Amino acid sequence: MIPKTISTAFLSSSETRWLAPAAARLCRHFDAHLVGVHGLGPLLPMGGDLVSDPVILPEMLEWQSQEAEAIRETFEAALKAEDIAGEFRSPADDGDAREDFLIDGCRSADVILSAHIPRQGGRANDIRLQEQLIRQAGRPVVVMDEALPLPGPAQHLLIGVSCTRESMRAAHDALYLAAGGARIDLLSVSSSQFERRASRDLREDLASALDRRGYNVTVLEASAPTGEIGKELMRVALERGADLVAVGAFGHSKLFDFVIGAVTSMLLETISVPVLFAK
């Protein structure tokens, strides 16, 4: 399984400066086509009708245009530097919905790349948009931090295993980015004895399936309270030296996310290595 089309969702020119080159390097390793997607930011209300002020509105539109052009130039420079094929997409109509354009523009790719957005200090609109991308795109989304992007095919993966559809999608989607014969750790983090028993047989079946594909598989098990599962996954990934983590995303309702704290949200907050989210 080799990705031949990779999309990158750009939310700002500042993140594009490192994300575009990182995405281009990854595409060069896979000989993949790179699609860069950027939607214009919404015109946020400013003190009532200020957003339609004849002086302020043109300035805001000009800023948006400059931001889009800066992202395009950085993206095209990254394509040229790595000598790969690609294309840049941005809305032709300023009225296009940023969320819909980004998600639709990424949907045909094998894998989507996105930059880590700090939960403390990150723009609320960007945080929400990234979560919607994971929820709605229908493709695996790899979230990376500037300090540690994914440089090429993953040599060592950690896959979070649970008895959910999303978890199994993550396990198989991760193979797009796995090197041949890669080490794969299958980790189940359980908050109860019942969950531990339920995931054990599934984990063994998955280990056998991956072994038949030639991967070097290790089966792991850990315990943690429900609200700490994300931290435990990341702790084990760092301890084991994994260069990619793969998990199912938003497997519970939004109410569950809000009340208890979803694994997805915690991982998005504490990313230390690239994480592939599959929904």
TrEMBL record:
<dbReference type="InterPro" id="IPR006016">
    <property type="entry name" value="UspA"/>
</dbReference>
<dbReference type="Pfam" id="PF00582">
    <property type="entry name" value="Usp"/>
</dbReference>
<protein>
    <submittedName>
        <fullName>Universal stress protein</fullName>
    </submittedName>
</protein>
<feature type="domain" description="UspA">
    <location>
        <begin position="155"/>
        <end position="278"/>
    </location>
</feature>
